[in-house]
Amino acid sequence: MAGAPGGLKRILPLRTAVSTSAGLASAAVNFLAAVEVAQLAAGRWAWVAIAVAGLLIVGAASNFAELSGMYPTSAAIRVWMGRALGDQVARVGSLVYASTVLLVMGADAFVLAKAFSQAVPGIPGMAVVAVLLGVISAANLRGIRIAGWIQDLNALALLATLVVFSALVLWHHPLAAPAAAAGPATGGFWQAVAVGVFIYVGFEWVTPLAEEFRDARAIPRGMLIALGVVALAFALFTAAIEALSPGAGALGQSLAPQLWVGREAMGGVGYWWMMAMTLTTAGTTFNGGLATASRFVYALARERTLPRSWARLNQHLVPGRALIGLTVLALAIAVVVVATARYQFLVNTGAAVESFMYAVSALLVIRLRRKEATRLRPYRAWGGTWAIAGFGVVYLFLGFGALTTGPSAVPWPLVVMGGLIGAALGYVRWGVPHLGAVRERTWGEPS
Asked: What is the pLDDT of residue 5?
């Protein structure tokens, strides 16, 4: 079914809502996060920390479900923030938020490049990243239906095989019971929960595809299903790490721990199995990231926050200029990250922005319930005002924790985020009015 004349197509089914949400949450850096969770839990059943983190993130998912149900639009959080907090705040927030997809794609490119260079030393890992980005970008330009199929196949292959692989590992290497003195109330366990939350970040980026689903209700349903699938897959994988290397001590500072797990569990077959999963993980992140971020950028351009040309659709009803621009930016970031190996700054900055947005989502739900009490809400966030606010405070603390975490004495994630906010403020203050003036001179439209 087509959307409005000249607009996006409403053709995506529920399964693509699940695969997009799950695929964006299943970044390659999750393998590194799973190792860190196992190290922090240190014999306390790290998979439980993943499950508890999933329960925390469900609170944010229910917030996004309510907001997306009220306003199912490609502009997503730009519209929700505008209705609740005002236009200027919404513009700044949406520009900073848009950067998170590029940050995650850059970090994933680093993990893929390092894993491929380790597996096939004769081929530069960055070349593989560039080819994969180019192929996925070209496929996306052919239409959202093709992008949806790619996402469905990649997410299914990734999560199903990760569950099967981890189950086989646990079948042959049963997980030992935790020591009696190492209960879940210890500090390390709750640190593991905090890190585990970041395994799920990005699940809500399916919301900018709202104008391309046959039924807008697919997004709230898809997000919740996706969180359950991601929790199952990565909880099992974390348990497999614990079974093979208690406390993940054998993994050290490995940048491709999944390859070690594969070889240790199944030899050469397991090694290449995990290499294939790493490639698939990057595929889901690149494909889902370009598909969703290009629609978000398209909506920002349509609403006069970005240049008008980025709101133009090609013959396949795809915002082609926005998609190509994002591909070039993602590739540039990937080159810098692979060259400098500073991926951790991107991971922590992206995690902080996401956590702050989860806190903001709680504020938006509370504000809009007061300002627009009579508006139809197909879904309602779980819990009353105090419960929603409580979850928001938790996400706020997690965000500050991510900003101050890192191997360097200088809090680079905080510096990077400060730079992003400063750039967004400057652009909204001077760039947006300039766009309006140019538009008025060129097109005769009021700014």
From this structure: 43
Q: C-alpha angle 279/284/290, rounded to 5°?
A: 120
Mean pLDDT value across the chain: 87
Q: How far apart are CA 9 and CA 6, in angstroms?
A: 9
The verdict on residue 145 lying in a domain is: yes
**Per-residue DSSP letter, 431:** I
- pLDDT per position as a tens digit, 9-62: 789 999 999 999 999 999 888 898 888 888 887 766 788 889 998 998 999 999
- 213, β-bridge pairs: 12
Closest CA relative to residue 417, chosen from 431, 405, 433: 405
How many other CB atoms are there within 10 angstroms of residue 118's CB atom? 16
Domain count for the chain, please give it: 1
List the one residue out of 369, 323, 344, 402 whose CA is nearest residue 143: 323
Rounded CA-CA distance 349/93 in Å is: 14
Alpha helices in 319-406 (DSSP H): 320-340, 343-371, 385-403
Are the C-beta atoms of 377 and 70 separated by less than 8 Å?
yes
How many angstroms separate the CA atoms of 433 and 234, rounded? 46
The CA distance from 146 to 135, in Å, is 12
Residue span of the structural domain in which 325 resides: 14-440
Q: What share of the chain is helix, strand, coil (3-state, %, to 5)?
A: 75, 0, 25
φ and ψ at 12, to 5 degrees? -80, 140
Residue 7 lies in a domain: no
Q: Identify the band that residue 249 occupies on the pLDDT scale cut at 50, 70 and 90.
A: confident
- Asked whether residue 211 is domain-assigned, the answer is yes
CATH number, residue 217 = 1.20.1740.10
Task: Kindly provide the b/e burial profile for residues 76-98, where b requires at least 16 CB atoms within 10 angstroms of the residue's own CB.
Answer: bbbbbbbbbbeeeebbbbbbbbb
| Look-up of token digits 């935790």 | 178
Amino acid code (one letter) for 241: I
Cα(188)–Cα(207) distance, rounded to whole angstroms? 34
CB 104 within 8 A of CB 27: yes
Calculate the alpha carbon distances from 206 to 108, 167, 297 in Å: 18, 29, 14
| Structural domain includes residue 194 | yes
Dihedral in degrees, nearest 10, Cα atoms 169, 170, 171, 173 = 80
